[in-house]
Each structure stands twice: as C-alpha cells, then as structure tokens.
Design brief:
about 170 residues, mainly alpha, two-stranded antiparallel ribbon, 2 strands, about 45% helix, elongated, signal
C-alpha cells in the first residue's frame, strides 16, 4: 500500500488530520524563520543609511563625486584662424561657345553609345599619330581621323547627340 493511499484512506481521518497539521506547522515555521532573518530589528532605518548584504550599515560619502576622475589636456589657443576646408577658387568665366564651335568641340560628349565610341576611337587615332610622328606610314590614321571628325560633326556628338535619322545619314561606311 502506498503512502498516498495510506494517509488518504477515508476510514482513518484522524491520521489524515495529523499529517496535514504536521505539514502546515513545518511550512509556517520555515517562513517565519525566513522573515525573522530578513529583519533583525523592527525599527525603520533612518534616512541616509544603507545596509550591505549582511545587514551592516555602509557609510555614504558626504560629497557627490564620481568614481572616475578625468581631466582632458588643455588645448593651446592660437590667434590665427585656420579653416579646415580650403576656400574654393573661383573658376574663370569662359566665353560661351557658338553652335558651330560646340558641334566640333570634344570637351562635352553626348550621352549616346555611338558618340562615346566615336570619342574613344578619335582619342586612339590622335595618340597613334602623336606617337609615330609625321610619317607616311600613318597616312591611313590621318584619313580615318578626318572621316571620324566629319562623322562627329554630322551626328552632333558635341551637343545633344544624334537623332534617329542621323545614324543612317552620318555613319561612315567602308
């Protein structure tokens, strides 16, 4: 027979009452002892008193100060003002180019793949002519550069770029 059935048996109510009383007294004595350990004295603590984990008073400092004291190094002040950002230099105003000058100029390239390719090809041709000098062997570079310059002007690559009809009309055919 188990303990549970032995003490919960209905024909033994006196044993059941004794068991319940025993458990109740054990639990209440445990809690009363814990409460008495927490508060050694019944008097409330005065203001400004702090207790440690064992109930002993801790003295508090009279002045408020931090645990870490740090002083930054003193910075020498100079009389001269030196800005971090350099002032911008004004660009000299350039004279606005005429329409014809804009067409021939290669300072601006229109946002078109044909114009970008044409600009890079003309740069390569100019580099090859400059490196080889004025020899008759580079005459085909000179001819191609003249043809590409005409194509540049016709396609308006220096200004707004070619229209749809300009591709057929202006591109060089071999």
């Amino acid at each position: 027979m188990s303990l549970l059935t032995k003490y919960t048996c209905p024909n033994k109510p006196a044993k059941m009452a004794m068991f319940s009383l025993l458990i109740f007294t054990t639990v209440t004595s445990f809690f009363c002892q814990a409460e008495s350990d927490k508060a050694d004295t019944g008097a409330p603590l005065p203001l400004g008193v702090v207790l440690d984990s064992e109930g002993n008073p801790i003295s508090l400092p009279k002045q408020n100060r931090s645990a870490l004291e740090f002083r930054s190094p003193e910075v020498k002040k100079t009389d001269k003002y030196s800005p971090l950002v350099q002032p911008r230099k004004k660009k000299p105003r350039t004279k606005k180019l005429s329409r014809k000058q804009q067409l021939t100029s290669r300072s601006h390239v229109a946002n078109d793949p044909s114009c970008r390719w044409l600009n890079s090809r003309m740069n390569k041709l100019e580099e090859s002519l400059a490196s080889a000098g004025n020899s008759s062997a580079n005459s085909y570079h000179k001819k191609e550069l003249v043809i590409r310059n005409k194509e540049w002007k016709c396609m308006k690559c220096g200004v707004e770029g070619p229209e749809q009809k300009d591709y057929d009309r202006c591109q060089y055919r071999r």
